[in-house]
């Protein structure tokens, strides 16, 4: 078994939606990012790369590479899933927490779980999505951005 954890932050900027776990969620602000800025998937990718000791998302998808400008982060997750299977591991479970005052994640959590399970080729029961505010404290509390942290357990395939 292998364990991994990941964390990602994006600042809010221009726009009227954010992408979280592959779901386009309406919001009064967008995010500043090279890709689509999906903090859920970026944290999850880093957790998987970490469990495999394969570096981080920036090593696999450098922010200096124009190919990833505006990219759908699901591409990154499917790549992480491929590496997992190449190393003879399968996802045991993943637990993700979104940290921010808004948008509210609860109404979109099931759609996110379904997308993540599809890209990771696993049962949806292995994917958990949670959310918390920071009680108005810090950058997330001031509504300056959004964060996510993820933990994964990988099992031998
Ligand atoms: N972006 C968020 C933040 C929170 N939630 C849900 O609200 C509950 C209460 O949050 P507290 O920070 O006040 O504990 C939390 O447990 C989530 O169910 C959310 O959906 N989206
Ligand atoms: C995802 C990548 C892709 O170029 O860029 P960003 O969308 O800015 O996201 P970040 O979480 O900063 O991770 C770095 C990059 O790998």
From TrEMBL:
EC code(s) of this entry: 4.6.1.12
Cofactor annotation: a divalent metal cation
Metal-binding keyword on record: yes
The protein's annotated pathway: Isoprenoid biosynthesis; isopentenyl diphosphate biosynthesis via DXP pathway; isopentenyl diphosphate from 1-deoxy-D-xylulose 5-phosphate: step 4/6
GO biological process, one term: terpenoid biosynthetic process
Source organism, top-level taxon: Bacteria
Record's keyword terms, sorted: Isoprene biosynthesis, Lyase, Metal-binding
Database matches in InterPro entries: MECDP_synthase (IPR003526), MECDP_synthase_CS (IPR020555), MECDP_synthase_sf (IPR036571)
Gene3D superfamilies: 2-C-methyl-D-erythritol 2,4-cyclodiphosphate synthase
Residues annotated as binding a divalent metal cation: 8, 10, 42
Binding site for 4-CDP-2-C-methyl-D-erythritol 2-phosphate: 8-10, 34-35, 56-58, 132-135, 139, 142
Cofactor, free-text remark: Binds 1 divalent metal cation per subunit.
Record's keyword annotation contains Lyase: yes
Group of enzyme by EC: lyase
Transition state stabilizer (site feature) positions: 34, 133
Domain 2-C-methyl-D-erythritol 2,4-cyclodiphosphate synthase: 1-154
Role summary: Involved in the biosynthesis of isopentenyl diphosphate (IPP) and dimethylallyl diphosphate (DMAPP), two major building blocks of isoprenoid compounds. Catalyzes the conversion of 4-diphosphocytidyl-2-C-methyl-D-erythritol 2-phosphate (CDP-ME2P) to 2-C-methyl-D-erythritol 2,4-cyclodiphosphate (ME-CPP) with a corresponding release of cytidine 5-monophosphate (CMP).
Subunit structure: Homotrimer.
NCBIfam families with a match to the protein in the record: ispF
Family listed: Belongs to the IspF family.
Name of this chain's protein: 2-C-methyl-D-erythritol 2,4-cyclodiphosphate synthase
Species of the source: Frateuria terrea
Gene: ispF
């Amino acid at each position: 078994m292998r364990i991994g954890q990941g964390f990602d932050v994006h600042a809010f900027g221009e726009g009227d939606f954010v992408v979280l776990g592959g779901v386009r969620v309406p919001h009064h602000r967008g995010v500043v990012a090279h890709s689509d800025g999906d903090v859920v998937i970026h944290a999850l990718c880093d957790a998987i790369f970490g469990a495999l000791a394969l570096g981080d998302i920036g090593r696999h998808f450098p922010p200096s590479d124009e190919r990833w400008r505006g990219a759908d982060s699901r591409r990154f997750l499917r790549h992480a899933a491929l590496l997992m299977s190449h190393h003879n591991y399968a996802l045991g479970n993943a637990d993700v927490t979104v940290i921010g005052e808004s948008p509210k994640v609860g109404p979109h959590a099931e759609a996110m779980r379904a997308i993540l399970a599809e890209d990771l080729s696993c049962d949806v029961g292995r994917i958990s999505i949670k959310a918390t505010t920071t009680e108005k404290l810090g950058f997330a509390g001031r509504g300056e951005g959004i964060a996510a942290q993820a933990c994964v357990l990988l099992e031998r395939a």
